[in-house]
Structure formats: structure tokens, C-alpha cells
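Student: Hello, beginner here. Can you help me understand the protein record under this note? Any guidance would be welcome.
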Amino acid sequence: MPTQRKIDSVAELTEKMSRMQAVIVADYRGITVEEITKVRNKIRPLGGEFIIAKNTLALIAAKATGFAAIEPALYGPTALCFAYTDAAAVAKAVKEVNAEIKKLSFRGAMLGNTYIGGEQALEVVASVPTRQEILAQIVGTIDAPVSGIVGVLNSAATGVVYAVQGRIDKLGGDDKAA
């Protein structure tokens, strides 16, 4: 018979999984509370959350939200790193902190509906362009044609000015215009 605490945990995990862009599964053996706090503080402003979860409860929540493919990564001591707003930024922050502490080992990740297995899961999620990078690419794509149009309009206006000036010069209006 499930306890109320477990029911609440599954409901909380289901809610987190339903609104995530990605989740990275890690083994947290050997990491201190101070180091976990460091990871949490690094990813929280980026729209991320780092929690310790029971595998069985995480699997129940994953199946309820359509992320059952994550099952191979759910074994042993499990930490879940959720990314709610910018998966790549959160993954890069986790990668940065782990380069310093060197204690997290990664088992897999869900990026959208795609399961990425193994140690390379963090690398794959971190290699995706961040939201800011995508926005910069979109602005660059939009800006290029606009710059071209401005150049064409500017050259057309310059051409008209030169044509009028040439006509004035031809009529001998240089001296009289001043």
C-alpha cells in the first residue's frame, strides 16, 4: 500500500516532468551537501532544478507523463536535473560545476521526447544552442535582408541625388544656385 508521502512525491515528480524541456539523470555518490547546493544555486536562475529522487517513484512519474524511455537510466543513487526554460543553458551550467567538483556521473537524459543514454547525455544536451543563441540567430537572419533593403534604398536615393546634381551641372546652375 503506497504511503501518502510516496503519493505526494509521485505527484510532484509528475508535475515537474510535465513542464520540463529536459531532464538529466546523474549518479550523485560522493557529492557533499555543499556541492549539491552549488549545483542548485548555479542552475536555479537558468530555470533548472536539481533533486534527489527514488527510482521507482521517478519511473511511475515518467510513465505517467510519457517519458518511460528514461527507465534505463533509473538505477542506483539518482539525482534528476530538470531544465524548465533553457535546457542547453542548464546543461552547460551543470557541466561547468561538475568540471570543478568531478563527482557527478551521468547516466542519461530526456531532451523533449528523445532519450539520450550514457555518459555523453550531458554533452549532447549542452551542445544544443541556448535560447539566447537561437534568438541571436533569428535576429541575424531577419537583419540580413533588412540591411540589404536599406542598402538598395540608400543606393537608389544616392543615384537620384547624383542625377539631379548632374542635371544642375549640365544646365550650368552651379554658380546661380549658390
